[in-house]
Amino acid sequence: MQTVHLPMIGTDIAWRDAARAHLAQGTPPEALLWTHGDAPQTDLFGATAAPNPAMVTPLTVPKPFVDLSRRVVWHSDPERFARLYAFLWRLRDRPALMRDTADPDLIRLNGMEKNVRRCAHKMKAFVRFRDIAQGTTGRRRFAAWFEPTHFTLEPTSPFFARRFADMDWVIATPHVTARHENGRVTFAPGQAKPDLPEDGAEQLWETYFCNIFNPARVKISAMQSEMPRKYWKNMPEAKHIPALIAGAEARVREMAETAPTLPPLRAARVLDRLHQPRDLPELSFDAMRARAEEASRDLPEGYGRIILGEGPQTAQVMIVGEQPGDHEDQAGRPFVGPAGQLFDRIAAEAGLDRTGAYVTNAVKQFKFRRQGKRRIHMPPNRTEIEHGRWWLDLELQLVHPKMILSMGATALQALTGSRDGLLKRRGQIEATPYGPVLVTVHPSYLLRLPDRVRQEDETALYRNDLAVFAGMAAAA
Amino acid sequence: MTLTLTEKLAILSDAARYDASCASSGTTRRDSTKGGLGSTEGSGICHAYAPDGRCISLLKILMTNFCIYDCAYCVNRVSSNTKRARFTPDEVVTLTLEFYRRNYIEGLFLSSGIIRSPDATMEDMVQIARSLRQDHGFKGYIHLKTIPDATQELIDEAGLYADRLSINVELPTEHAVQTYAPEKSPATIRGAMARVKTRRTLSKDKTHTGKRPPKFAPAGQSTQMIVGADGSNDQTILGQSTRLYGDYGLRRVYYSAFSPIPDSSAKLPLIQPPLIREHRLYQADWLMRFYGFSATEITAARPDGNLDLQLDPKLAWALENRHLFPVPVQTAEKQLLLRVPGFGTRTVQRILTARRHRTLAYEDLTRIGANLKNARPFITLRHWSPGALTDSADLRARFAPPPEQLSLF
């Protein structure tokens, strides 16, 4: 009988080397006694056998076995080394044994591997660091005490090194201590439970734990199967569990017995604004303007007043732009800012008479965010386009145009329901419930083009669109 | 009155507990060895479990529980008298990082009530994610609950920082949404989900120069619906899930048993949450995703379109389709083995490899890890045949829980 002693730190490599050497020597499994730990014990009947590295010959082993043994060596079962070696002995003649998932020995080893994997996983989950005073290096320092079921600290520490690379940490267990400093992990013998300083964040964490719990659905067995009691003593939040369970029933009963309270005053105000009755007393320009004025009185921050279109009420054509800007909001009229002026200029060149058309926007309010003294324009979202469409609907019903010019994606979305592919659709006439709509870009698009040549090309295209529209308007 | 950080955390985690999802898996692998903090390695980690049996993997909080909507099932609706609080973006960032450093969490799950405008709310949420990623090099997991009414640009930016985006469909039918959540629009919700799907597809295409665009929500999108608040049956619910999985490529649909909330609306019943029903729905969902079942098959047997609460859906299905059984384990196809009650996907995989090496016997299956109590009547093996058991009239009674005496009081 020979004894093989394996150290506490670096067990995996030591077992692999020893197993390799003994297999090469042809030592049968029953002739080996494996020990593990700090103090080598000598077998009464044999001498400690150190594998002779010179004897090691290349040895091929199925890769799945290598992976399996690397995990199983960390199990706490004292027989693990012997079981691994015995299975390796059987593998010599039958490498295919590794794939026989119904072999009892393999199932046993797979079971141990699963125990170790689960233990490592729980370690990744349940280690709780505490902040300890900052060192001289400027890196933040943390420490934790943990009691794993198996010897899993060494194989799990690379995970912590990858995750917490920018801090120094120590994880102490009864058998091994892992220390991470400046990106390097070192191992030292285990120690007794250290006294770690209090950490203020723990109280916040406990608050979170107690409040995320839903007392209406208590499932204690589900909790305990995933977080066994043995881990509780080193987890700060676990001390609240008994009280949470005990109080759950009373909290649910209280919820059921408390009569529904009256909604706060605030609610009525908020909901009123949200559900404003939307019908006008009568369908007329005056009623519409009165409503717009009323709605502009109590404006939320970030929104300008409601600006309706302008033009003859009997206009044959309607021109729909995007959204009022800062200039329009100050003037209270649509199409007076830089884009509006550009439109006027090109429209005149194209022979389109603005004064004969009803000119309006798809969205009625200037939307902005403040930056210093300036109000920066913000694009409208879906709700705001919906909101603007209600006004646009009224205008369309009142003016009843024969032709509509849609400028830009927002107008296109309001009129046709889709803003996709504006540049592909431009210059085309689309049928809508409101009548035929000619699609084109918004003049502000021309202003934003950085390339001079492209700007000229696009302006020419735009002028052409307006000329087409002017021709159709004249025919209408 | 200003609230302390602890008070805010209490209010805003209390308000977030009704979101079921806590997954932190399925995103890209990354770690902090080249700078920053944190890592994600395929499977997520559950750092704690609350006594409700749910895992705590992410710091799940609301940015604010002020809300202008009035959804009957929600504790944060405008007409509720619950306590209100609001985090600043900085507070959320600090809490996330400090919790992460102590190994309490895998990352952040941020949701919010709708305040003044959907854009302002979404902008703050995006700012938190941006700050975590860019200012602090945070490599952990981020799940953002998207606000469907926000501008598309904001949702597009959110997807660049978040691992997962989610938008709740809330209730199984459009009618139910209109009844209980009058301010929400099912069409807008669907539109936003479609947008996320499109962006994810685009982000996987290489450009003509062979460059990859930045990753967009690598852990996909998910949604949640509340079960038991309206009258929908399980067939409707599973049908809706099938559509969601198909149309929007969702990773997960979460089912949340409607549970009584403090200061609840008079519109809804204060009953014990239908936890078993929720559990059966998850089981059925699993059957659809991993076992090749279709929604109609699972609920076909019962006239009311609901799942059997006493038996798990696979066993219930097998009892209704006994003409397909018993299955010869040694020779049957994978598809058929997957339909045997008591055989999980992993058991089936092990059977497939083991049967190449030996003729399987009853004991082999025990060791492989099959649940033979359920499987026994539905399989044949060497030295095992169920005989008349498969077709016996009392087979159902063997599995169903014993009848229970009703309480007299």
Topology at a glance:
The complex is a heterodimer of chains A (476) and B (409).
Chain A: E1 2-6, H1 11-25, E2 32-36, H2 63-72, H3 80-91, H4 104-126, E3 130-132, E4 140-145, H5 153-163, E5 167-172, E6 176-181, E7 184-189, H6 201-212, H7 220-226, H8 241-257, H9 265-274, H10 285-295, E8 303-306, E9 317-321, H11 326-331, H12 338-350, E10 358-361, E11 365-371, E12 374-377, H13 382-399, E13 403-407, H14 409-416, H15 422-425, E14 429-432, E15 435-440, H16 443-448, H17 452-475
Parallel strand pairs in A: 1-2, 4-5, 9-10, 9-13, 13-15
Antiparallel strand pairs in A: 3-4, 5-6, 6-7, 8-11, 11-12, 14-15
Helix pairs in contact in A: 2-4, 3-4, 4-5, 12-17, 13-14
Chain B: H1 5-14, E1 48-49, E2 55-56, E3 58-62, H2 89-101, E4 107-111, H3 118-135, E5 141-145, H4 152-161, E6 164-166, H5 174-180, H6 186-204, E7 221-227, H7 234-248, E8 252-257, H8 275-290, H9 295-299, H10 313-320, E9 327-328, H11 334-337, H12 345-354, H13 362-368, H14 372-375, E10 379-380, H15 395-399
Parallel strand pairs in B: 3-4, 4-5, 5-6, 6-7, 7-8, 9-10
Antiparallel strand pairs in B: 1-2
Helix pairs in contact in B: 2-3, 3-4, 4-6, 7-8
Shape of chain B: globular
For the termini of chain B, the CA-CA separation is 48 Å
Total strand segments of chain B? 10
CATH class identity of the largest domain in chain A: Alpha Beta
- The CATH topology label of the largest domain in chain B is TIM Barrel
Number of strand segments of chain A: 15
Give helix and strand order of chain B, one letter per element, not per position. HEEEHEHEHEHHEHEHHHEHHHHEH
Major protein interface? A-B, 83 and 84 residues
Indicate the proportion of strand residues of chain B.
Answer: 5-15%
What would you call the shape of chain A? elongated
Main sheet strand line-up of chain B: 3-4-5-6-7-8
- The helix count of chain B comes to 15
Amount of beta strand of chain A: 15-25%
Indicate how many domains the architecture of chain A comprises.
4
Number of helices of chain A: 17
CATH superfamily descriptor of the largest domain in chain B: Aldolase class I
